[in-house]
Amino acid sequence: MRLANLATIVRGLHLLGPTTRSDLVRRTGLTRSAVGDLVAELTDRGLVHEVPSEPTGAPGRPSPVVTPRAETNVVLGVEIMVDTVAVAAVGLGGTLLRSVRRPREHGPADVDRTLDDVAGLTSDVLDSLTTPSALFGVGVAVPGLIRRDGATVATAPNLGWADLHLVAALRPRLASDAPISVLNEADAGALAESRRGAAARRGNVLYLSGEVGVGGGIITGGHQLTGSTGFAGEVGHLPIRPDGDECRCGGRGCFETEIGEAKLLERAGLDPAAGAGAITDLLERSAAGDADAVRALEEHGRWLGFGLSGLINVLDPGVVVLGGLLRTLHPHLERPMLDTLDRHVLADIRAGTTIAPSALGDDAPLLGAAELAWDRTLADPTALPTPLPRSA
Amino acid sequence: MRLANLATIVRGLHLLGPTTRSDLVRRTGLTRSAVGDLVAELTDRGLVHEVPSEPTGAPGRPSPVVTPRAETNVVLGVEIMVDTVAVAAVGLGGTLLRSVRRPREHGPADVDRTLDDVAGLTSDVLDSLTTPSALFGVGVAVPGLIRRDGATVATAPNLGWADLHLVAALRPRLASDAPISVLNEADAGALAESRRGAAARRGNVLYLSGEVGVGGGIITGGHQLTGSTGFAGEVGHLPIRPDGDECRCGGRGCFETEIGEAKLLERAGLDPAAGAGAITDLLERSAAGDADAVRALEEHGRWLGFGLSGLINVLDPGVVVLGGLLRTLHPHLERPMLDTLDRHVLADIRAGTTIAPSALGDDAPLLGAAELAWDRTLADPTALPTPLPRSA
């Protein structure tokens, strides 16, 4: 009971920010003295401190503001993508203390080299923290199918990884006993956007991230949709075009083959393998009125809408967040996408659905990995952190 | 605490059937005397009785078998479909005591006439029960979008209904204060199959029912997927064929337009409006080797597999249950459907997925409506029933 009350308070502070004692009383339904007692324990544990509230001019003694101590209580978020590797230190309350991102080579990834890079970035990030801190956990986002153990990558085709126990491979490099959890990159994006982004405090969310591949993170009724084997959310492999291109999954006409980066370039008559730089050129040409570029974006938007329509009719997500490349493209694809949704989504569902670009941008999966790392503490604020590993 | 323990025991008896006291002790982790005490209360309330167990030849006194009293504790399930209306009385423990189904005319349904039919069938069913009984609730399955209130039909296109407060319309006709809940027909099918059918005790299920329209009921992590507005699961309107036929939803190339009854008849060169009788003829012609019939079923199976592939990649349901017409067609569509799944479903997800025909058959939604009606009692076995309404 006491543990549950501690957890309610910490979770509220982490998600909603600094809160006066009076508001904690209102929010929790606990008595003033019970809240005082719980806040005292959290203060003793170093998780929060109380700061005087701004004078409001109202009579009576101002209620102190209970504030998460971000600088001394941290988790690490790690994101391993096709193009980049990133590491962030995030304080309790969601404060981003420090993050670094480093480009890496395309193509099948050497596991050891990648994880050495992660370890190097982690040292850089931790060494740059100015206050002695405690580490509560590490979350790692990977563009692949993650097993239910939250530790093993079953397959990550764009990284060339399969059946990799990522936690076992990463632990010795981090020189820390902190819990390490692995999650799918789009699931991480969905988690971050639903906690602090474009879908904040929404219980039903579809996060769609497009880059080389297209991933989906689905939250229904406040919970991540994991499915029977943990691999749910593979929206990139929703077949939508029977006569479409072959997909790297072995199928044909998948959502991913229609709305991935390569297809957009192909639609504009460009080299499909030309990469992100060519997309920037394409958008500039479109802005300048180039007919091929305009037509390519129009067609791309219709295909985005076509696949999204089915996902909305099935999931009724309330809010769809477009991340990664789809966030960049959003203003250019919005009109044809919405026209297509209006035609294909059932009216009663359409009326309750909004489509928004990611609010957290390219860091959404990185921040989501950090959020996952916080989950143990949010469930049990008495779980002890580990000392921060320091290089040298 | 006591309420939660009562609920655990009643839920177990309802879902798993008669159980010895010894097994209740094992299953609940409660002491023998606590179980005895709880069973005594349930006996006093008339929900269960104890019957001597069969002699096993083992030494010691046989443990009595705690058995739900199905005949005296009932709910009503109601199913309103395009072709038929059905009512069932189901006892605690899931025993089907009595059911009747009556054909009704195709096309837009006069609400008053339909509900009068339901009331008539309900009287027939209740009057035929031989033991004085108590009514715990009524569940109503409707092929349409049901609002989150569990009472209002937002739209049921094949019935021609929109914005109908079905509970308010039905209550005076039932002459009972019993709680009435409304749910989507495919959600009802999913509920029944996941409790007592082809997906028994599975936490992730996709139930797909095909008739005139195609409906979906989705269970993820043990919970019905309801979505943001309560309308999730509209798998019939997953667009899968950009150049396909227009759908009654206003879209084009929906899953429903590709795998509905009309399309199968059209594929075989028959009148798409010829109905269920023509399907029977088609299956007979296929069995006799008629090339058009064989080819039509082959093509239909591939489209079923194509749409299902996307749903499986997104939902990772573990088990897919085919109900309604799709159950009848299952043996004829299975091979081309599975071939298509093998090509389009990600290997790691495919390995964990089985496709099964409905075990409860045409009554799955009717039994699911009854299961919904039991839910209040399963959560709170002290909730009082209402007297059984009797005609004259």
Explain what the structure shows.
The structure is a homodimer of 392-residue chains. In chain A, a hairpin with a 4-residue loop joins strand 9 and strand 10. By secondary structure, chain A is α+β, with helices and mostly antiparallel strands. Chain A is 42% helix and 22% strand. In chain A, helix 4 (111-127) packs across helix 5 and helix 10 (291-315) packs across helix 11 (325-344). In chain A, strands 4, 5, 6, 7, 11 and 17 form a 6-stranded mixed sheet that branches. A 5-stranded mixed sheet of chain A has the order 14-13-12-15-16. The model of chain A has no long low-confidence stretch (mean pLDDT 93). At the A-B interface, strand 13, helix 10 and helix 12 of A face strand 13, helix 10 and helix 12 of B.
Question: How does the SSE layout of this entry go?
Answer:
2 copies of one chain form a homodimer.
Chain A: H1 2-16, E1 19-20, H2 21-28, H3 32-44, E2 48-51, E3 65-68, E4 73-80, E5 84-91, E6 96-103, H4 111-127, E7 134-142, E8 145-146, E9 152-156, E10 161-165, H5 166-174, E11 180-184, H6 185-196, E12 205-210, E13 214-220, E14 223-224, H7 255-259, H8 261-267, H9 276-287, H10 291-315, E15 319-324, H11 325-344, H12 347-350, E16 354-357, H13 364-379, E17 386-387
Parallel strand pairs in A: 4-7, 7-11, 12-15, 15-16
Antiparallel strand pairs in A: 1-3, 2-3, 4-5, 5-6, 7-17, 8-9, 9-10, 12-13, 13-14
Helix pairs in contact in A: 4-5, 6-13, 8-10, 9-10, 10-11
